[in-house]
Write a structure and sequence with these properties.
Blueprint: E1 22-24, H1 28-37, E2 40-44, H2 48-64, E3 72-80, H3 84-94, H4 103-109, H5 113-120, H6 125-131, H7 135-139, E4 141-144, H8 146-159, E5 163-166
Parallel strand pairs: 1-2, 2-3, 3-4, 3-5
Length: 170
């Protein structure tokens, strides 16, 4: 008998397998949940500056509940020497985030305020996609030649990422 779910006589065929809990978080309340309950927190499509902020928020929230801060994983878009088609695919992944709460401020701070304004004004996705400059996916990803990608990995790690994963990665 629990607060939200009740059962009588239910048994699983096998024992519980256990496993780690990863919480995707962006924003103080979600970070607080991750700090309290997660074995790992993940942030998706964020700039290194946002990683630094999230890492500090996570550490503060974890300390506030007497826990060691869980590791911070960052999902990024990635492409080495991308062609036009790959750049289009990278940009497409960002469109839904342009007007999302929290992401809008991050994109503004990264210099893409006009695009955020268009998204918040209701511009349709194809218009937003056409307006995404190459610099926007580069701001939240590992994009360029091998040397540039290595430098960006170092930048994300220096900002506080404990691990980097291609977006949607395991």
């Amino acid at each position: 008998a629990g607060d939200h779910v009740r059962t009588r006589g239910f048994r699983t065929r096998t024992g519980a397998t256990g496993g780690a809990l990863t919480v995707a978080a962006f924003g103080r309340r979600a970070v607080g949940v991750a700090a309290r309950h997660a074995d790992r927190m993940v942030a998706n499509l964020v700039t290194p500056a946002a990683v630094k902020e999230l890492k500090a928020q996570l550490a503060e929230a974890a300390a506030g509940v007497g826990r060691v801060s869980p590791p911070l994983a960052v999902w990024v878009v990635a492409a080495v020497d991308p062609d036009a088609s790959a750049r289009q695919q990278l940009a497409r992944a960002i469109v839904p985030y342009l007007s999302a709460r929290g992401y809008d401020d991050m994109f503004r701070r990264a210099g893409f305020g006009e695009l955020v304004d268009a998204a918040q004004a209701g511009a349709p996705p194809p218009v937003l996609l056409a307006g995404i400059p190459d610099g926007l996916p580069e701001a939240v990803g590992l994009i360029g030649d091998t040397e540039r990608v290595r430098a960006r990995i170092d930048e994300f790690m220096a900002a506080g990422a404990d691990e980097l994963r291609p977006r949607g990665g395991p």
